[in-house]
Specification:
Blueprint lengths: L3 E7 L3 H12 L6 E7 L6 H11 L3 E5 L4 H12 L4 E4 L5 E2 L3 H8 L6 E10 L2 E4 L5 E4 L1 H8 L11 E4 H7 L15 H7 L3 E13 L10 H22 L6 H15 L4 H13 L11 H11 L3 H8 L1
Parallel strand pairs: 1-2, 1-4, 2-3, 6-10
Antiparallel strand pairs: 4-9, 5-10, 6-7, 6-9, 8-10
Helix pairs in contact: 1-2, 5-7, 8-9, 9-10, 11-12
Length: about 300
């Protein structure tokens, strides 16, 4: 059994893939397996994967057609043998000491370990001053983590395999923004979460990536998928104590994304969100949050879109 299983979905990323895979090979800590889940690519991505599979015995390749990111991750988890799981998107890359730093900070009690990321945009590196914390239960940890933008991304965490299996976590197949549909619930469910200061993940913002696609139909699909996944998470936690923080985060996320739509669609989804009680748990601790809550509840798209955001 390896210490870590690193799951990498691959689809049409030949320009970035070698850098991604090399960042794993160059890790200073070597006790890991790499599970690459290949979709049917239109470029040379699969050929590149085959090169690495032949060269490195701890690399495994799985091939499935039309998986999507969520299903690919679920497939990778189903065959993973490591004590801990990590996710790596195939256009991103690790810093060489990431696994070493994770291993130094793990103990048997930790379900979930968070490390820091930096964003690469137009060859510029954007760092975030995120404050780490010692081991907390999931509810307290969530209160710390939601202060930052990247709570929804699954790839800035290391997951204890037994914790994952016990809770039978799965990404929602066929959904855009599948991280949003699972990561908050994972954090909330954990008995122990630790956040370290090491910046180990490089997140590449590329113009043609799924999350940057300007196709408006995909934005509408994402809105529908966000609502679906938020509602499923709320159903799972509705009888659990101290769930206000996560419900507030889910609601704020839905409301925020609705403001990125055109005015007509914003009003349509605003009505849907009101019917599902999204406005009952908006954070309003500060003056700015109270103003935002008032504007949103009164359906003032213009003021929120141009003044609050």
């Amino acid at each position: 059994m390896n210490k870590f299983s690193i799951i990498i979905p691959v689809y049409n990323v030949e320009k970035y893939l070698r850098k991604c895979l090399n960042s794993v090979i160059n890790q200073t800590y070597k006790d890991y397996e790499v599970i690459i889940v290949c979709d049917k690519s239109e470029d040379n991505s699969e050929k590149i994967v085959d090169e690495y599979i032949k060269k490195y015995k701890n690399f495994k390749k799985l091939f499935y057609k039309n998986t999507g990111l969520a299903k690919a991750r679920n497939i990778g988890i189903s065959v993973a043998t490591g004590e801990y799981y990590l996710f790596l998107d195939s256009d991103d890359f690790y810093e060489e000491k990431l696994l070493e730093e994770i291993e130094k900070n793990l103990d048997d009690s930790i379900d979930l370990l968070r490390f820091q990321i930096q964003e690469i945009k137009n060859e510029k590196v954007i760092k975030y001053n995120e404050i780490p914390f010692d081991t907390e239960n999931g509810i307290k940890a969530f209160s710390n983590i939601v202060k930052y933008h990247y709570v929804e991304n699954s790839w800035c965490y290391c997951y204890k395999a037994s914790f994952w299996k016990k809770n039978n976590f799965t990404f929602e197949n066929g959904c855009i923004a599948e991280d949003f549909g699972l990561t908050p619930y994972i954090i909330f469910s954990a008995s122990s979460v630790k956040s370290i200061n090491y910046i180990g993940y490089n997140y590449l913002q590329r113009d043609n990536s799924l999350m940057n696609d300007k196709n408006y139909e995909k934005k509408i699909k994402k809105m529908n998928d966000l609502i679906l996944q938020a509602n499923k998470q709320k159903e799972k936690i509705k009888y659990k104590e101290n769930n206000n923080e996560i419900i507030s985060f889910l609601n704020d996320s839905l409301i925020y994304f609705s403001t990125t739509l055109n005015k007509k669609d914003y009003k349509h989804y605003n009505k849907i969100l009101k019917k599902t009680g999204c406005f009952d748990y908006i954070q309003s601790k500060t003056l700015k949050q109270k103003i935002k809550k008032f504007i949103l509840k009164n359906n003032s798209w213009f003021f929120y879109h141009y003044l609050v955001r």
